[in-house]
From TrEMBL:
One matching Pfam family: Radical_SAM
Radical SAM core domain residues: 12-90
Record-given protein name: Radical SAM family enzyme
Domain of life: Bacteria
Gene Ontology CC, one term: cytoplasm
Amino acid sequence: MSTLVPPPLGLYIHIPWCVQKCPYCDFNSHALKGDIPEQLYIDALLEDLATDIEKYSDSVQNRELTSIFIGGGTPSLISEGEIARLLKGSKQESHFLTT
């Protein structure tokens, strides 16, 4: 009987837009030009998450999702409603994980 517990998972979500690109920043980020395609971007992130969970299901099955980190760029440029949808969708996509 194995007593090994698989390590928990953390999810990193990247928001690549900034008001302006800082000269020292090496992250994948882009100065905002016009409106952010929030809904399309969040849809794509959730689709990518579903694909990755299916692809790596053997590795992530029964592992606890303990953190979600949203970085960038400037994540606060995304509306509260779309961030809420992203978090809700992330939770739904990882439904099989122990939380």
